[in-house]
Amino acid sequence: MIGELDPVIHAPKRLGAMAMLAAAQWVEFSFLREQLDVSDSDLSKQMSALCDAGYAIVRKKGHGRSGQTWFAATAAGRKALKSHVAALHALVDNAPIAPT
Question: I want to staple 62 with a disulfide (CB 3.0 to 4.6 A). Which of 3, 35, 44, 67 is the partner?
Fold first, then answer.
């Protein structure tokens, strides 16, 4: 059961980000930052990990302070999230009862 968990998505901040990306077409950086209650640098690190894994893509518009950064889940990212959530359910639903 544990082997089915995706280590890229399993980190709480990345799991939260993927949940939001899966619920929308595109999500703006500042919205993710506020909802996850993280710093710019922390969110950048988390989103880089998701993009590097092929689970998210980034779109930038403009430059500097007036620029905006948007993220979207890829088909692979949506599939990975669905599999990860199924593995979490299986882990919880099928946990053995320890002898007393």
Answer: 67
